[in-house]
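Researcher: I'm preparing a figure for a lab meeting and need a structural model of a single chain. I don't have an experimental structure, so a prediction will have to do for now. The sequence is pasted below. Please return the structure as tokens so I can convert it later.
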Amino acid sequence: MENTQKPSNMLIHLYLALAFLGFCVAVYMSYSKIAGVPVVCSLSSCETVNNSPYAYIAGIPIAFYGLTFYALAINAALRKSIRWMFLTACVGVLFTGYFTFIEAFVIKAWCQWCLISAWLSLCLFIISFKLKFRSSFQS
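Model: Understood. Here is the structure written out token by token.
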């Protein structure tokens, strides 16, 4: 049986699946903040990162912003709006880059959930970039 789905539809579905995974990570991190319980972490420094002053913007935990980001990414993918998928991913990857820099050079500690979210954000950016500029990639 031949796969007749257009590549762009497959990429949109992949974007949606990754955004959903990111949303799940953000839900878990948000729950941890609300319930006041430490996150399960194979790295020893998740709590160092999550309890640092950099874990909040305007008194709101970063995880809550992550919920918003991934919800917007899911919404854009469900609407198949390449433009909004790309814009959302651009904002996400910029914030992720900043927070990863903070982890590495300011806090000097790593949170595995933050790193998973960072990779997911980067993947969303790459997929949306390919979708947005797909004519440049066609031979």
